[in-house]
Each structure stands twice: as structure tokens, then as C-alpha cells.
UniProtKB/TrEMBL annotation:
Localization, UniProt: Membrane
Keywords on record: Membrane, Transmembrane, Transmembrane helix
Region (Disordered): 302-335
Regions that span the bilayer: 12-31, 43-66, 78-96, 133-150, 156-174, 186-207, 219-241, 253-275, 281-300
One GO CC annotation: membrane
Main location: membrane
Protein name: (wild Malaysian banana) hypothetical protein
Length: 335
């Protein structure tokens, strides 16, 4: 009875984590779309810096209240993480500016195979045939939904490559650092958010001016615009936290695969809220295919052998066999 209860509790927490991430991610996209479409606030990098500044403030409050315990993260790992994370943010913005929407979406889809490659190389993860096929189905479905015109140029390709690899490395690092240093989601945010906030708030205005030829300090900050900026920062706290929770509980690949549910929700909500055309039979069929692929991925990856870490051992004599089995069992428990 106890194991079943433990499994049910884990399943409930998993669903809650995904729901939290989907709600906050879709919410912030809708708010940011309103900021861009209605109020012409185009300073995405600076806005992201404000997001992390708000997150930093919350982690300071939680640490003061005793909800976040002291923890350690080596400076070298912190610098690597912030470098990957900031390159991801800037790279995505530049990729969107220099590439067509179609190629931008293809670049985002390529994060899944890149994340898979990182897990295979660094974690020795093995994917079953069914798991691989389910990922292909998800990619095909989302591609049908989002990819339209596809044109690419040299600088756009470079920007997309940097964006994809830095995003995949940042998401891999979230899982790696939490496991290696036994860090909770808020603990890791407490280490990374202040550095990201400081660096993005310093560099953000210059990057945004380069991308938009507009100065953030010259923007007309009306009451409504400020309200949406504050709302965006508030929701961003949940988005940042839920991302760390989800990747910590699962992996970067699972986060990417199931995270495409957000793409489908954004398309649907964008159609109803912003009155854009495009939700036709072609797009709906892609949505259905992507959802079926996500369901298949969840089922295939959870089965024995669907997604597991490979362990290698050298042949030993019978006198050593018992010790080897014990060591292998301990290693499998860790996985």
C-alpha cells in the first residue's frame, strides 16, 4: 500500500509541476504579446532582466523568512550557467529578428534532438525505438502547426545555432546542478537569478537598442504599460521557478517534448484573444498529431528500457560477481 501511495503522490506532484509551468509560461507569453502588440514595449532583453530582478527579490525574502536554506554552488559552475542562459535569451531574440518565423520555429524544434545528444553524451542515456519515434511525431506535429515560410541567411543561421545550443546547455545544466549539489529549485534560483538580473539589466538596454534602434529610457511609460510590465515580472517568477522544478524532476528532453503543449495553447489562445487568422484544419491536424506524440512519449519513456542510463562493466570472475552486482544495484538506484 505504501509504494502505491508514494507513486500516486509523485504522479500528483508531477502533474502539478507541469500545470504550474504551462499556466505561467502561457500566461507570460500572453502578457508579453499585449505589451508588444498594444503598448509597443519591444525591449525583450531588458524585460527579462527585470524578470530576474523580481525573482531575486522573492528569493531574498524567502531566505530571510527561512524557507530557503544556505547552499553552495561553485563560482565556475555559476558562471557557466549564467553564460549559457544569457546567450540563450539574447540568441533567441536575435534569431527571431534575423530569421523568418518558419526558420525560427525549426530552430526551436531542433532543441529536442540537441538535448537528446547532450543526455546521450554526458549521461549515457539510451532511448528505445518507441521513444525516438514518439519524439519524431511530436516534432512533426508542432512543425505542421508553426512552420510556414522558411528562409535562412548566414548570420541568421549563426544566431539560431548559438540560441539552440545555449538553450539546450542551460536546460541540461539546471538538471545537472540540482542533482550534483542537491539544490532545490529556489536554492538554484537564489544563486543564478541575481547574476542574471545584474548582467541583463546592464547589457539589456544596449542589446535592445541594437535590435530595435529604440532606447528603453525614452519609452512612454503609461500607467497601463507599467501595469503590464509589473504583471509580466510577477508571472515570470512562477515561470522561472516552474522551469527549474520541472527540469529538476524530469530532464531537459522531457521538458522540451511536453513543453510543446505550451506552443499549442499559445496558438489557440492567440487565435481567441488576438483575433489572428490561421487556426484552420491544417493547424488543428498538427496539434492533434503533436498531442498524440506527447502521450506516446510519456508512455514509451516510462516503460522499462524506454529511457535509461547505460552502465558498463568489465568481465570478472565468480569471486567478484557478488560485489559487482551490489555496486551496479547501487548505481541503478541513483538513476
Amino acid at each position: 500500500m505504501a509504494p502505491a501511495s508514494k507513486a500516486d503522490r509523485k504522479a500528483a506532484l508531477d502533474v502539478a509541476a507541469w500545470t504550474f509551468n504551462i499556466v505561467t509560461s502561457v500566461g507570460i507569453i500572453m502578457v508579453n504579446k499585449a505589451l508588444l502588440a498594444t503598448h509597443r514595449f519591444t525591449f525583450a532583453t531588458t524585460l527579462t532582466g527585470l524578470h530576474f530582478a523580481t525573482t531575486t527579490l522573492l528569493t531574498i525574502i524567502f531566505r530571510w523568512l527561512g524557507y530557503i536554506q544556505p547552499s553552495h554552488l561553485p563560482l565556475s559552475n555559476l558562471i557557466k550557467f549564467v553564460l549559457f542562459a544569457n546567450l540563450s535569451i539574447v540568441g533567441m531574440n536575435i534569431s527571431l529578428m534575423w530569421n523568418s518565423v518558419g526558420f525560427y520555429q525549426i530552430a526551436k524544434l531542433s532543441m529536442i534532438p540537441v538535448s537528446c545528444l547532450l543526455e546521450v553524451v554526458f549521461d549515457k542515456i539510451h532511448y528505445s525505438r518507441a521513444t525516438k519515434l514518439s519524439i519524431v511525431v511530436v516534432l512533426a506535429g508542432v512543425a505542421i502547426c508553426t512552420v510556414t515560410d522558411v528562409s535562412v541567411n548566414a548570420r541568421g543561421l549563426i544566431a539560431a545555432t548559438i540560441a539552440v545550443w545555449s538553450t539546450a546547455l542551460q536546460q541540461y545544466y539546471v538538471h545537472f546542478l540540482q542533482k550534483k549539489y542537491s539544490l532545490g529549485s529556489f536554492n538554484l534560483l537564489g544563486h543564478t537569478a541575481p547574476v542574471q538580473a545584474a548582467s541583463l539589466l546592464i547589457l539589456g538596454p544596449f542589446v535592445d537598442y541594437w535590435l530595435t534602434n529604440k532606447r528603453v529610457d525614452k519609452f512612454d511609460y503609461s500607467v497601463t504599460a507599467v501595469f503590464f510590465i509589473v504583471l509580466s515580472c510577477t508571472i515570470a517568477v512562477g515561470t522561472n521557478l516552474s522551469q527549474f522544478i520541472c527540469i529538476g524532476r524530469f530532464t531537459a528532453v522531457s521538458f522540451q517534448v511536453l513543453g510543446h503543449m505550451k506552443t499549442i495553447l499559445v496558438l489557440t489562445l492567440g487565435f481567441f484573444l488576438f483575433g489572428r487568422e490561421g487556426l484552420n484544419l491544417h493547424v488543428i491536424s498538427g496539434m492533434i498529431l503533436a498531442v498524440l506524440g506527447m502521450i506516446w512519449y510519456g508512455n514509451a519513456s516510462s516503460k522499462p528500457g524506454g529511457k535509461e542510463r547505460r552502465t558498463y562493466s568489465l568481465p570478472v570472475d565468480k569471486s567478484q560477481k557478488h560485489g559487482l552486482l551490489s555496486e551496479t544495484g547501487d548505481r541503478d538506484d541513483e538513476v
